[in-house]
Amino acid sequence: MFKVLVSDPISDLGIQQLMDAADVQVEKKTGLGEDELAAIIGEYDALLVRSQTRVTEKIMEAGSKLKVVGRAGVGVDNIDLEAATKRGIIIINAPDGNTITTCEHTFAMMMALARHIPQAYAKTIGGVWDRKSFLGVELRNKTLGVLGMGRIGSEVAKRAKAFGMNILAFDPFLTQERAEKMEVKLASVDDIVRNADFMTVHTPLTPDTRHMISRPQFEVMKKGMRIVNCARGGIIDELALVEAIDEGIVAGAAFDVFESEPPQKDHPFLSHPKIIVTPHLGASTVEAQENVAIDVSEEVLHILRNEPFKNAVNMPPVAASVMSRLQPYFAIGEKLGSFAAQSANQAVNEIHVDYAGDLSDVDTLPLTRYIVKGVLAHHLGDENVNIVNGMHLAKSRDINVVVTQASKSKGFTNLLTVTLKTQNDEETLVAGTLLNGYGERIVQINKFPVDVAPEGHQILISHHDKPGMIGSVGTLLGQNDVNIASMQVGRKIIGGEAIMILTVDKAVQKDVLTQLTTLPGLNSAIEITL
Questions:
Q1: Quick check: is 280 catalytic?
Q2: Residue 315 has pLDDT above 70, yes or no
């Protein structure tokens, strides 16, 4: 008989399947302090919490039988993940439970924006019967741009089709094949900005997505655009948005999230007549709160019964002998995945990992998880991808993960090669190794041999091999106060295609990268941050 402790208020409906299981005994004891919980946790196999209970290292040390801690929600900042991993305790959450409720809130905001509902309501209850000031627009036959086609964005697109809207969809992992299957049109951010009537964002907040809609986008935006953000504050530049509304570029906006929450009382959104705001209500429904508990209960049951499970947010136990061989490669594996993702310019449909040399005769799945995390986290964010759910996230986006192993390693004792394949059969290859006395090294980028330490801010340049190119690049960077720490050049033949990879002291502004591409003979310049 498995014993499960519920230490935070969770409805009976949410944990019904645990209560109905013949091999599970559920006990509810809420409001316990750390010492009180530590004193009793030793008799339980599983612990279910929301956000109130802090599951500390002390509690896990006392939980001698503890196999799993379930968080009925998404965030796990109240759980010591490192302590859990050391003890082989699996931590699970419920990332899917708020999908529909956030999707529906997005539509509520879109409809309110289209028909000026909050403004009309305020005026009507104020005693003013004003039908002329609130002329709205229909959703039918309008074009909706969806930035981010994960769980929530995909559900929004599905419902928008039912409203008769045309969908332009952007996602770094959205392939043409998947777009056709979802009956949406694959588009770039620029396509959406220039052509959509409504725009909704459903991406995580990452360095790449922060202010992805800002002054440059507003300058070319279709006049009359209406913008909804129920994802994360900071994806849209708030001050630039206010300016765009005041200039008549944007017709209105509806935001459930802010860059800083709660916003200051003088935040311009709070007093602007064309902006609708709500206090981060995306997941605030009775059903969502129950759904996350149902999802977690189901996963807990699978783990207790030793059945397949998903949504773990820490690493499951690995044999010590395997761990000792793989652990030195975790960091470089994740960096190679991240480097490849930042280098690729098309939606990825396959991650191919080749292990050679010392890694050819060991179960490399734990290491593969780090590589997949590195690939996905660049676009989805570190807080949304981890070494366990990465494989599930890749599968949900139709990304195939292929692993091969070979004893020969091109002269290296060990060699990891990550190849990203896209829908257009383009490939981005990055290979790395651990060198005695030198540590992590990138030794190949696409077809070019290099010797680069994978760290800090780097600029990857594709160019023609000709005299003066290095000097031109160095001069331009110097003029923009960018200091070069190291430089590597790779080429196959004299005067042919070549690459240059520079390690620089700080992040490089986008306009500097654009300036680089104007140099004669220089094809592309990409910033890589590791």
A1: yes
A2: no
Element (H, E) at 39: helix 34-40
The CA-based angle 272-233-155, given to 5 degrees, is 105
Q: Please identify which residue in the block is written with the tokens 């998880």.
A: 369
Percentage of residues in the chain having pLDDT higher than 90 = 71
- Per the CB < 8 A criterion, the answer to whether 202 and 182 are in contact is no
Burial class of residue 82, CB neighbours in 10 A (0-12, 13-18, 19+)? exposed
Specify whether 232 is catalytic: yes
Amino acid at 236: I
pLDDT band of 329, cuts 50, 70, 90: very high
pLDDT of residue 316: 59
Which of 50, 105, 202, 232 is an active site residue?
232
Kindly report, residue by residue over 437-468, the tens digit of the pLDDT: 788 999 999 999 999 999 999 999 999 998 99
Under the banding of pLDDT at 50, 70 and 90, the label for residue 307 is confident
Distance (Å, whole) CA 230 – CA 283: 10
Q: Which residue has the higher pLDDT, 331 or 383?
A: 331
SS3 of 44-55: the string is: CCEEEECCCCCE
DSSP 207: T
Q: How many CB atoms lie within 10 A of CB 137?
A: 16
Detail the DSSP E strand segments found in 359-514.
400-406, 414-422, 427-435, 439-445, 448-452, 457-464, 484-491, 497-504
> Which residue do the tokens 């959406």 mark?
192
Question: Which DSSP category does 79 fall into?
Answer: B
Would you state the pLDDT for residue 19?
Answer: 94
| Residue closest to 393 by CA, chosen among 204, 196, 212 | 204
pLDDT score at 346:
83
Tell me the H-state helices in 381-483: 389-396, 469-479
Q: How far, in whole angstroms, is CA 227 from its chain's centroid?
A: 21
Integer Cα distance of 154 and 314 in angstroms = 27
Query: Average pLDDT of 27-51?
Result: 95
User: For every residue of 308-354, which 3-state class applies, written as one string?
Assistant: CCCCECCCCCCCHHHHHHHHHHHHHHHHHHHHHHHHCCCCEEEEEEE
- C-alpha gyration radius of the chain: 26
- Asked if 228 and 106 touch (Cβ cutoff 8 Å), the reply is yes
Dihedral through CA 433, CA 438, CA 442, CA 447, nearest 10?
-90
Element (H, E) at 216: helix 215-220
Q: Is 481 exposed, middle or buried (0-12, 13-18, 19+ CB in 10 A)?
A: exposed
Given 210, 280, 325, 352, the catalytic residue:
280
Determine phi and psi for 520, rounding to 5 degrees. -60, 130
261 included as an active-site residue: yes
Determine the average pLDDT of the residues in 391-402: 88
Is 210 within 8 Å of 384 (Cβ atoms)? no
Q: Are strands 275-277 and 250-255 parallel, antiparallel or unpaired?
A: parallel
